[in-house]
What does this fold into?
Amino acid sequence: MKKKSLWCAALAGAGMMAAVQIAGLQSAAAQSKPTIETGMEHFQGRWVWQGALKDKRDPKNISRLQFTDRDRIVYCYKTLCVEVNVHRDAGGGFSFTTNGKNNFVMVSDASGNLRGRFWEDFTSPSRPPDAVVTFTLKSGI
It folds into this structure.
C-alpha cells in the first residue's frame, strides 16, 4: 500500500510540476508577443485595397507600425502583430516582409508620413500594389 501511495503522490507531483511548467511557458509566450507601445511614437494608417483583393479585405482595417530600433519594427494589421527586420534603401525608404512572400515598401514624405505599398505575393514587382496606405505619426499618449 505504501508503494502505491508513493507512486500516486509522485505522479500527482509530476502532474502539478508539468502544469506549472506549461503555465510558465504560456505566460512567457504571452509576454513576448510583439505589441505597439501606444505610449510611444508610432505610425497608424488604413490600407486601401485594390484589384483582386479589394472585395476580400476589410476596408476599415487599422494598421500600426513602430520602430524598436533602426532596422527592426513591430507591424500590426488589425490585431495581428509581428516583429520584423527592415531593409533600408539609399533614398531613405525601407521594405519588409511578414511571411517571406509578401512585400511592404515604405517611403517617408515631406510631412513625415510614411506612404506604403503592399504586394501579397511579390513574384512580379512590376505590377501595381495590392494595397496602398499613408501612415501618420502618432505621438505617445
